[in-house]
Design a protein that fits this description.
This protein is mostly helical. The chain has 9 helices and no strands. Helix 2 packs across helix 7. The longest helix has 14 residues.
């Protein structure tokens, strides 16, 4: 049995995501544990395991998904993954690719919060959201 070179079968998106994240996306066997534990899964248009599948298949429309921006980087998926994949790093890699293309879902200048909510939102949460979404 001869070994097929992965380099020939990989796509550009997959190569970039694996380089940026340091994760082997072929390690995912689509068990859905990441999606089952995600606190924002109901709000996402693509489940976290579907994101990985789209990248492996080279489907560039994954970059248009709102899931990438909804990921809270809470590491629940990474902690529960039976294959020790860190999906948080994969999501971050996809956001970096978008930010490199000057695509950003957050406009810090026009972000308005209601005064009552400002006191309830921890400052760390605001800073991390702006950092995550603006590079």
């Amino acid at each position: 049995m001869h070994k097929i070179s992965r380099k020939n079968e990989e796509n550009e998106l997959l190569i970039e995501v694996e380089e940026l994240s340091g994760q082997n996306l072929y390690g995912c066997f689509q068990c859905g544990t990441c999606s089952a534990g995600c606190p924002f899964a109901e709000e996402m248009d693509l489940s976290p395991d579907t994101i990985i599948r789209y990248v492996i298949l080279g489907r560039a429309e994954v970059l248009d998904s709102k899931t990438l921006w909804l990921c809270a980087s809470c590491f629940t998926c990474a902690e529960r993954c039976p294959r020790d994949l860190n999906l948080t790093k994969i999501m971050e890699a996809l956001r970096v690719l978008l930010l490199r293309k000057k695509k950003d879902h957050t406009n810090v200048e026009t972000c308005q919060t209601v005064v009552e909510h400002e006191k309830a939102i921890p400052q760390m949460a605001l800073v991390s959201v702006f950092r995550k979404n603006t590079g």
